[in-house]
Amino acid sequence: xxxxxxxxxxxxxxxxNRRLAFEQLLENCARASGFNRVQTPIFESLDLFTxxxxxxxxxxxxxxxxxxxxxxxxxxxxxxPVMRMIAEEMRNxxxxxxxxxxxxxxxxxxxxxxxxxxxFQYGVELIGASGPLAEAEVIALAISMLDACGLxxxxxxxxxxxxxxGALSGLGLSLETPTGASEPPVASAMRFLDKGDDAGLANLxxxxxxxxxxxxxLRALADxxxxxxxxxxxxxxxxxxxxxxxEALDELQITLDAVVALAPxxxxxxxxxxxxxxxxxxxxxxxxxxxxxxxxxGQVLGGGSYKLLHLFGLPDLDPCCGFGLGFDRVLLALEAQxxxxxxxxxxxxxxxxxPMIAVIPFxxxxxxxxxxxxxxxxxxxRVELELRxxxxxxxxxxxxxxxxxxxxxxxxxDLEAGNGMLKSLSTGEQTAVxxxxxxxxxxx
RNA sequence: GCUGUGGUGGUGUAGGGGUUAGCACGAGGGAUUGUGGUUCCCUCAGCCCGGGUUCAAUUCCCGGCCACGGCCCCA
Length: 444
Fold this sequence. Notes:
The protein has 444 residues and is of the alpha+beta class.
């Protein structure tokens, strides 16, 4: 028996129903904010991802050579392909572009709950507009989506890489990687701050000719916690440091104010200046959403402002802003929440559908009912036709188990009388209805 | 990359060096040749793969594969 490859999943009709409903819900949110869907290929040139993330990423790629000896790879993420698409197809489109995307991505790594080798990502990118208002639009959309799907237990953390970075470089730490080192001193400092390694931080400052006394205010800055009220203390700390600009802080303030006006209030919002997203192409505001109950795999969404389009010859469009949403993880969180609340419905609206009617021809020529089946379907009613010639009792059981709302039985007697028996499976009531689609539809 | 636990019909499980490998759900058929979600009967279908120990392995040992966890990492 051939099994599905490691780290992949099959989706049964019941599961797929839910996934489609979730995708539709996200899509509706995106469209309400003017974001329109695009789609890119499942495989791309290997260069696309090594250019963005460096040669180290190959270890986690499903890369291969095609029959024309081209170096290709299954896509590990969707931002780079969308950037590529913009450069190739959308240079002359009116800016800004508001794009959304959804699809599977592939990473060769160990998988766990909420982490698979084939996983699904939903995301948006706002291209050709930057600044605090553009950032607020993106954050607000993320909040709206999580709000719309009914998730309750989540936290959004918003930061700005420019603030710590500005403070550190303002003190005199270099943004350039020295020869022989693996990362610039600024990045090392941010890592020390994030991990709480104060000794390492002080040491780093001293070896770069900066007074170690500066470590304390930096630590205080990194440790600030809370909502937008933390910006006041942050301002005081930054003002006390030499050569540090307050510009990034002012921008973050504008962004936060705009988000409050644009989006529903999230369950928990925290300003956290150490949100680093680990990636050096993020240049401004960064944010992420955590579902605490999911533990180690609890980050369900991440994004921010980044500079990538210069890699495609479009530096004028940098920086852009966007986020990626872990489709599978949010769904897992919703499923866990539904179980905890003893609720059947996991994604809002997943089970609301048009009524379904099971048409059961009984000891008659099936041809007699086919036109009605076709007409009902065209008029928007879901119709399933009994295909196995079951006896009447079995047929009723079949109709029940496929989730039909009604049965419509047509036997010899009915045919003679020119009608059929329409039965509601929920109430058990049964009435004779004329043998035409309109009469049946009106009786539902 | 490190590490823990586990793999018995389609699903969930019991058992265990020699067994007709048990049960439940499921699916198909029948009791019931015009009415379902209750009952009864019948049928279908299983010891992950390879090697080793043994007279004998589904059971014990090793390896692989797969699954589920905890770290590391995460574009």
